[in-house]
Structures are given as C-alpha cells and as structure tokens.
C-alpha cells in the first residue's frame, strides 16, 4: 500500500443514483494511498448505487450533507451516474459545498456526469475538461474547453469521461491530490 495521501481527508459527494463503480474504485484507490474518505450525502443514512441505471448496493453515509463542512476536507470526488449529479445540482447546499472547494482552490476529481456539479458551482469557465459525451455541450456553454480524452487535468481540477477510464482517472487523481497536499505542507 502506497502512502502518497497519508492523512489527506477526501469527501465523496453522492446521492441516490450514483454510478457505483465511479465511487467504489476511486474510494478504494484513495484509501490504498493513505487518504481518509467520507461519503457525504443529502440522501439520509444510506445511499443507493446503480450500474447503468439498474439499482445495486446501498452504502452508509458517513456525513450528512447538512453537517458537512468543506474546511474539514482537503479534496473532493464527484462521481457520475446520470441521476446523481442531476439531483445534486438542484440542492443549493450541495452546490455550495462544491463551490467552497473551488473557492479554496482545493483539488476536485469529477468523472462521467459529475462535471454537471462543476458547472453549477461555476468552476469550469476557461478550464480544460472532459466528461461523458452528452455533458459536452453543457460544459462548452458554461465556458469550458472540452476535449475527448480519458483524463484531463487543469490546475486542481481533474475530469474524466466514463467508467472505462477509471484506471487512468484513479492514477491522475492520486497525482493531483498528492501535488495539492505537497503544496499545502510546503506553505504550512
């Protein structure tokens, strides 16, 4: 087990309808790199994953969104699934939670439909990003520079297209989060 992210605190913001593998694989990669993760959700005690729209496992919510404080976390992960970010982006507290990470210049990793939350948080204007193809026009309309690549890094922002890109997404996520942690420790 590597420890590039030892002690780093990472929030994973999800609600019912998240693409399960887009949460479980990054979650495992973060834990294996030494990070402490927390599932943050407005969904209650449990949150329902899906696989291509079909209901799958339920996961325990570690921190209800109403009690989550962005300052308690060093980084944020935004999994996709069509329903997940579509539901979250109409919840002002969820948008404000993401916006706080943007404003604090903390690293954010979003995959598939997850970048919808970045649009709502006004975090993509002038940024190079990628996403699930159907989100492309939304991102462009929000001022992003969209490209069709497995993973795109622009500063503290990492975006990726789909579950098949998870191996690259997870590697880049660890890199981006580790660089942010190193900068934080260098200024402390």
What does this structure look like?
This protein is 35% helix and 26% strand. The protein is an alpha/beta fold and 188 residues long. The protein has a single domain (9-183), classed as Rossmann fold. Helix 1 crosses helix 6 (166-187). The mean pLDDT is 95.
What is the helix tally? 6
Under CATH at level 1, the class stands as Alpha Beta
The percent of residues in helical segments reads 25-40%
CATH superfamily: Class I glutamine amidotransferase (GATase) domain
The total beta strand count reads: 12
Low-pLDDT residue spans? none
- The global form is globular
Major sheet = 7 strands, mixed
Structural class: alpha/beta
- Mean pLDDT comes to 95
Give the total of domains.
1
The H-and-E topology, N to C, reads as EEHEEEEEHHEHEHEEEH
Strand content: 25-35%
What is the annotated CATH architecture?
Answer: 3-Layer(aba) Sandwich
Strand arrangement in the largest pleated sheet = 6-3-1-7-8-12-11
What is Rg? 15 Å
Kindly list the characteristics that best describe this protein.
Rossmann fold, 12 strands, 188 residues, alpha/beta
List strands and helices in order, with pairings:
Elements: E1 9-13, E2 18-19, H1 20-32, E3 36-41, E4 46-51, E5 54-60, E6 63-64, E7 75-78, H2 83-88, H3 92-103, E8 108-111, H4 115-120, E9 128-129, H5 136-141, E10 145-146, E11 151-154, E12 157-160, H6 166-187
Parallel strand pairs: 1-3, 1-7, 2-4, 3-6, 7-8, 8-12, 9-10
Antiparallel strand pairs: 4-5, 11-12
In short:
By secondary structure, this protein is of the alpha/beta class. It is built from six helices and twelve strands.
């Amino acid at each position: 087990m590597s420890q590039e992210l030892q002690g780093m605190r990472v929030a994973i913001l999800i609600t019912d309808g998240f693409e399960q593998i887009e949460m479980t694989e990054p979650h495992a990669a973060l834990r294996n790199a030494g990070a402490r993760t927390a599932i943050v959700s407005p969904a209650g005690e449990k949150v329902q994953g899906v696989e291509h729209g079909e209901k799958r496992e339920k996961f325990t919510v570690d921190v209800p969104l109403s009690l989550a404080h962005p300052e308690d976390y060093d980084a944020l992960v935004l999994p996709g699934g069509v329903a997940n970010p579509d539901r979250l982006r109409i919840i002002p507290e969820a948008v404000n939670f993401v916006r706080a990470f943007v404003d604090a210049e903390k690293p954010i990793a979003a995959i598939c439909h997850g970048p919808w939350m970045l649009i709502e948080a006004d975090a993509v204007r002038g940024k190079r990003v990628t996403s699930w193809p159907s989100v492309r026009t939304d991102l462009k309309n929000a001022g992003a520079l969209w490209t069709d690549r497995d993973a795109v890094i622009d500063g503290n922002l990492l975006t990726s297209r789909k579950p098949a890109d998870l191996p690259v997404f997870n590697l880049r996520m660890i890199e981006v989060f580790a660089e942010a942690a190193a900068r934080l420790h260098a200024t402390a």
